Amino acid sequence: xxxxxxxxxxxxxxxxxxxxxxxxxxxxxxxxxxxxxxxxxxxxxxxxxxxxxxxxxxxxxxxxxxxxxxxxxxxxxxxxxxxxxxxxxxxxxxxxxxxxxxxxxxxxxxxxxxxxxxxxxxxxxxxxxxxxxxxxxxxxxxxxxxxxxxxxxxxxxxxxxxxxxxxxxxxxxxxxxxxxxxxxxxxxxxxxxxxxxxxxxxxxxxxxxxxxxxxxxxxxxxxxxxxxxxxxxxxxxxxxxxxxxxxxxxxxxxxxxxxxxxxxxxxxxxxxxxxxxxxxxxxxxxxxxxxxxxxxxxxxxxxxxxxxxxxxxxxxxxxxxxxxxxxxxxxxxxxxxxxxxxxxxxxxxxxxxxxxxxxxxxxxxxxxxxxxxxxxxxxxxxxxxx
Length: 386
Hints:
By secondary structure, the protein is α+β, with helices and mostly antiparallel strands. The protein is built from twelve helices and 13 strands. Strands 8-9-11-10-5-6-4-3-2-13 form a ten-stranded antiparallel β-sheet. Strands 7-1-12 form a three-stranded mixed β-sheet. A hairpin with a 5-residue loop joins strand 10 and strand 11 (322-328). The chain starts with 5 loop residues before the first strand and ends in an 8-residue tail after the last strand.
């Protein structure tokens, strides 16, 4: 079977929301009104920490698909001022967030134990609050949220091969600036971080044979598998990956913006930034290359995301191992595309309703586990009780 990215079709029920005249879709989706719809029509569970579990009305997969959002829409009215990554979330909220993640991932692995039959993934993409609201590709909700998705591999095998030149299929081998020009220093920087549960992998250990993705990205195997996610130290190391990435990103684009810029003031690992990055010729030469182009190419400069933009995943490889990876997210692509899965959503209420009962059954089962663990209370909607 030919390996390559797959494009699948996912039907959905049209959302009964009207975008006010003169307002862009992505502007409306950042509003409290839209968040009310998430809660009232698709909400599954909420808790005092403002974490909301909900069904994805415009989902990636009708096999299993849900999200947790840190719903600050009523507390922070400025969408540019809302938390967009875990490092910006209060400590007590992050503890609850991690426990919810652990329970949902454990449920997905339990329900889909065979890696040959299901592609299981969980993770987040940064919602970079520095892009203009009307820019193409801007995330629809500027609040931190996680995705939990299962794809049926039979469906993926039967799906059409996606266009490998699709710009949304960003991956380390073809599109990532870091991997294309600074692979060695990027890898060395991550190697300096101290992990016990996460173990750096070889490239062939992390890619999915069916799609060939992800490609060329740093990745780590979770030693101990799904049981390790019950260990608070796993989540500390998961955050360590993100903190290292943020330092690399900020250090690089600081150099792009300002020649010979110092170590960023908010660096998590200032010694590593100074010792490994700012004294590396490839790192500095690449920054110069990007800076020079920004000066002469307005379109290119406008497309840059100057603040850290990333996708970070926990997914299961072909061997059944859990893998952690992180990628620069410079285009605004879907998190599934990091694994080579392109989702084409089509409005088809009848097709969606065929899959809906089994999907809702699973979502309510995982909600019950979260309630039992004192992680929130159920929400009543027109489709299910509390």
